[in-house]
TrEMBL record:
This is Aminoacetone oxidase family FAD-binding enzyme. Residues 6-403 form the RsdA/BaiN/AoA(So)-like Rossmann fold-like domain. NCBIfam families: aminoacetone oxidase family FAD-binding enzyme (TIGR00275). Its cofactor is FAD. InterPro entries: BaiN-like, BaiN-like_dom_sf, FAD/NAD-bd_sf, RsdA/BaiN/AoA(So)-like_dom, RsdA/BaiN/AoA(So)_Rossmann. SUPFAM superfamilies: FAD/NAD(P)-binding domain, HI0933 insert domain-like. The lineage of its organism: Bacteria, Pseudomonadati, Pseudomonadota, Betaproteobacteria, Burkholderiales. Residues 189-350 form the RsdA/BaiN/AoA(So)-like insert domain. It comes from Polynucleobacter paneuropaeus. Keywords: FAD, Flavoprotein.
Length: 405
């Protein structure tokens, strides 16, 4: 058996590399093992190749977990501003895109190189591709059996991420190890994922593919795993249904069989203090057609499609019955549609569920029942909203663990 390590980190992605660099610089002897040919692949493809590496406004409210309080300690000890300082210290150019989301100006590769540089500073040893065959606890040490031999360590950190994008090496290994040590795992399911729709739930909007507009979207309910949500985001109409940030956010809270609800006027109301009732009851609108009235607050094509759907296309407002006006109002402020499913792990950005936080110490990420065994990053039942929060969790949980190992 070779060197005794302070910690062996399994998985050299966002959380694993960051944790390794921090712990290494605290003079810990750190070995990172990864089965992939190339490390940091999820970082490379993130944010459309520009990596939305954190969110300036990241707070516990941006995370889903069976225990929403679990993230508080780690996020408080390593907030977004600390990662931003690190990025600045490497001279990496970045910009804010939307609601505090920070992206690299050039490429996600900048973040990957920074993480490697931090590991080099901490004299971290990185080995890949290496297969991890088994992990066992033997007389106070952890023994990791790999395709290149046995390694012994004081601690093992599971940082193998979640199940999305199997094509680039995602596995359930962290969850398998959790189960091996009798830790509860919250059933994983795809998150931040496009939803699919049956043709008939959507037929009247099919011709509008390509249209994008800000809406208010809500999904889930109080009794669901992660409760209910309401977001104001951009919605994209596609040939297959609905997509864009609004749907990705809603997907985290959506349960099969339930509907999602869209207020197409969300942004209008917020922007101008818009009052739907006033528009619908205004005497001056009597002689205008239904679609003209709708088009004053909606894109013209959408206004026409809604008027058509309620059989009032071309009709003067004065001729539209109270009942039909009410139906139109419902349609544009509380449109309900039942997704048929999600596009699954291939298209998901994150995994919901994972190692149950009640098994872990929120200060250190260590399994309470197995001293020396840690879980960080996406494999834990902590999922961020869209917008850089998932990387912020990888950094914060990696930092907490690095202080402890
Ligand atoms: C397309 C896409 C875009 C995204 N964009 C963003 C974004 O812009 N902003 C954001 O905040 N989040 C984004 N995310 C989510 C983000 O990438 C993840 O939340 C983050 O990478 C999780 O970090 P991690 O270290 O836990 O896992 P990963 O970064 O996935 O790292 C896991 C590592 O473990 C290795 N591994 C897996 N199984 C084994 C095994 N059995 N043995 C050894 N090694 C193993 C893998 O090879 C990998 O290197 C995106 C995700 C996707 C899929």
């Amino acid at each position: 058996m070779s060197t005794q390590w302070d910690a062996i980190i399994i998985g050299g992605g966002a959380a694993g590399l960051f944790c390794a660099g921090v712990a290494g610089q605290l003079n810990k002897r750190i070995l990172v093992l990864d089965h992939a040919e190339v490390l940091g692949e999820k970082i490379r493809i993130s944010g459309g190749g520009r990596c939305n590496f954190t969110n300036q406004h990241s707070s516990p409210a941006n995370f889903l977990s069976l225990n929403p309080h679990f993230v508080k300690s780690a996020l408080a000890r390593y907030p977004a501003k600390d990662f931003i300082k690190l990025v600045q210290s490497y001279g990496i150019a970045y910009h804010e895109k939307h609601q505090g989301q920070l992206f690299c100006d050039h490429s996600a590769q900048d973040i990957i190189q920074m993480l490697f540089a931090e590991c080099t500073k901490g004299k971290v040893e990185i080995r890949n591709p290496v297969s991890v065959l088994s992990i066992a606890q033997e007389s106070g040490s952890w023994v990791v059996n790999t395709s290149t031999g046995l390694e012994k360590s004081k601690a093992v950190v599971m940082a193998t991420g979640g199940l999305p994008v199997p094509a680039i090496g995602a596995t359930a290994y962290a969850l398998d190890i959790a189960k091996q040590f009798n830790l509860n795992v919250v059933e994983p399911r795809p998150g931040l994922v496009p939803l699919s729709f049956t043709a008939d739930s959507f037929h009247h909007l099919n011709e509008l593919a390509g249209l994008s507009l800000p809406v208010r979207i809500s999904s889930g309910s109080k009794g669901d795993r992660y409760g209910a949500c309401r977001f104001q985001e951009d919605l994209l109409l596609t040939h297959k249904g609905l997509s864009g940030p609004a749907v990705l956010q809603a997907s985290n809270y959506w349960t099969e069989g339930e509907g999602i609800h869209i207020d197409w006027l969300g942004s209008v109301e917020v922007a101008g203090g818009f009052n739907c009732d006033a528009l619908f009851n205004d005497e001056e609108n009597r002689l205008k057609t239904a679609e003209t009235i709708l088009a004053s607050v909606l894109p013209q094509r959408l206004a026409k499609a809604f008027a058509e759907q309620k059989n009032v296309l071309g009709r003067k407002w004065a001729e539209v019955s109270k009942k039909d006006r009410h139906a139109l109002k419902e349609l544009i402020t509380n449109w309900s549609v039942k997704p048929a499913g999600t596009l699954g792990w291939k298209k998901a950005e994150v995994m919901l569920g994972g190692v149950d936080t009640k098994e872990l110490d929120g200060q250190t990420m260590m399994a309470k029942s197995h001293p020396g065994l840690y879980f960080i990053g996406e494999c834990v039942d902590v999922t961020g909203h869209l917008g850089g929060h998932n990387f912020q969790w990888a950094w914060a949980s990696g930092f907490a663990c690095a202080q402890a190992v």
